[in-house]
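dumping this here so i dont lose it
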């Protein structure tokens, strides 16, 4: 039977896009497992995944630094660049993956039929525990408050995600990152985050109970990131409420 295209993929339809990138720092291997969890969930037959595919378009670049990964580098590319400091002016010769992704994002931003609503760049953190996010600081108080909604919802869905460790900043050192650059480029309905997850463990039920992360636990965080988009868009009335209750993905 021929399948009917989702409303957001029909010719001329306005698209709401979620753009996700990972592994810009090659040594941060947990980011790949989180990204894998997001992808596996989105292409699954889970009822939430079907609703998300019907309403949103997901663009995912799971490895922004493939040459650095191949070489076993910790932070840099083949040519010794920390790619996550070159978003402002990436070179097609020296930073080709970054240049290509940035061009695609700018094309979508300039397309009146596309709303680029979320940009999430996935990393791993060498000293902090749990999963948490970095966001941007805006002069517009309402925009600043709206930006906090997604991480608060994620905190409700993922036991290992910490809203208390989530922070919003405009640190000059981070000016060349994807989150900071795109946060300044995109309009005020777009939200740009860095999603961090600990290399080590997450803490439950007080400061003394540390649970070591496993590959499955990282992928579970990815699944919970994906399902949080349904909560976000239900809250913002894109998705109708009468979706049958579904079990959590933990």
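and the seq i came up w/
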């Amino acid at each position: 039977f021929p399948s009917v295209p989702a409303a957001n993929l029909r010719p001329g339809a306005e698209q709401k896009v979620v753009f996700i990138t990972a592994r810009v720092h090659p040594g941060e291997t947990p980011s790949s497992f989180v990204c894998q969890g997001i992808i596996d969930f989105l292409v699954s037959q889970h009822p939430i995944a079907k609703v998300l595919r019907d309403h949103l378009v997901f663009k995912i670049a799971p490895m922004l630094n493939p040459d650095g990964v191949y070489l076993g580098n910790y932070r840099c590319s083949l040519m010794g660049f920390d790619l996550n400091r070159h978003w402002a002016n990436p070179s097609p010769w020296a930073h080709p993956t970054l240049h290509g992704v940035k061009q695609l994002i700018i094309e979508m931003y300039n397309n009146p039929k596309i709303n680029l609503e979320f940009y999430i760049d996935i990393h791993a953190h060498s000293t902090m525990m749990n999963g948490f996010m970095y966001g941007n600081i805006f002069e517009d108080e309402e925009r600043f408050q709206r930006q906090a909604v997604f991480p608060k919802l994620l905190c409700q869905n993922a036991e290992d995600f910490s809203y208390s460790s989530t922070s919003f900043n405009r640190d000059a050192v981070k000016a060349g990152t994807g989150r900071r650059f795109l946060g300044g480029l995109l309009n005020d309905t777009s939200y740009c985050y860095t999603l961090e997850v600990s290399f080590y463990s997450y803490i439950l039920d007080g400061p003394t109970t540390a649970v070591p992360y496993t590959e499955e636990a990282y992928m579970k965080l990815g699944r919970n990131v994906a399902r949080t988009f349904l909560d976000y868009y239900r809250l913002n009335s894109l998705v109708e409420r009468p979706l049958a209750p579904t079990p959590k993905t933990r």
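The chain has a mean pLDDT of 87.
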